Amino acid sequence: MNDGVTVCINVLRSIFNHLQSIKQLQLSDLDDAELVEVAQPFARMVGKYFASRNVEQMTQLRALRGVQGQTAGTRRLEQYISQMDQSFDPPGLKEFLDREKAQTTTRAYEEIKSIEHVLQATVVSELKNEFGAEEESWWFSGVPKAVRKKVDDRRNEEAGKSGAREQNFDLIDYRPIILENWELFEPTLARGKGSKESRTKWIVEVNDLRKPVMHASRGQSLPITEEQLALLVEIREWLETQVGQQ
């Protein structure tokens, strides 16, 4: 993809600058074979970076679009090279990582809360439309027993102060509800291809990212990366489009 090519070109520029400023090489004096020789160790690091990405990480990388995404992708690859070679320290990398740590978790929190809000409103509304607006109807007919027990246990512990049942779902609770009522939710909340389990895996992904975000809000610093934030934005935009098409 064009954005990925741009990232590689940006990193190549950083490598050339490093070779000239730190290694004190005059690249213009080298022939093609010599230039390849001095750049090859860094090229191998770049190749190792992409080869070590799993499917989810590659999806996150592809979600980085435009100038902001290219910058994030460039810095992430520079960070990887820096971890392999501590002398590699492109200008602005440390500042970018510090700024990313401070900003992305807050933005991720906002994206996750938006996703939770849309899911809650959509799932509960569909259950009420399908089984009836009375709580006894949609609650017992549409919500799996394990989820019902979990929600009721929580409300009992809070002496009912945590709100109505529909206000006490955890984000991950929506997945078993959707799976149990697949024909009802497939047109709107199924993402990608494959089985219904794989097409609802996005809820697991969001929930996994929710954990470090919530820990960070309690003072336990577990920053979200730009790639993870981009995935959350992509899911939130997709979800809003799906719901808007109803």
**So how many helices?**
12
Measured by DSSP, the beta-strand proportion falls in under 5%
Q: What sequence of helices (H) and strands (E) makes up the elements?
A: HHHHHHHHHHHH
Estimate the global geometry from the Cα principal axes.
Answer: elongated
Show unreliable segments: 217-221
Q: What is the count of structural domains?
A: 2
How many strands appear in the DSSP assignment? 0
Which oligomerization state do the chains in this entry correspond to?
single chain
**Could you tell me how far the N terminus lies from the C terminus, measured between alpha carbons in angstroms?**
32 Å
Q: Mean of residue pLDDT?
A: 90
Classify the secondary structure makeup into a structural class.
mainly alpha
Rg over C-alpha atoms, rounded to the nearest angstrom? 23 Å
Report the major sheet.
Answer: none
Helical content stands at: over 70%
Characterize this entry briefly:
This protein is mostly helical.
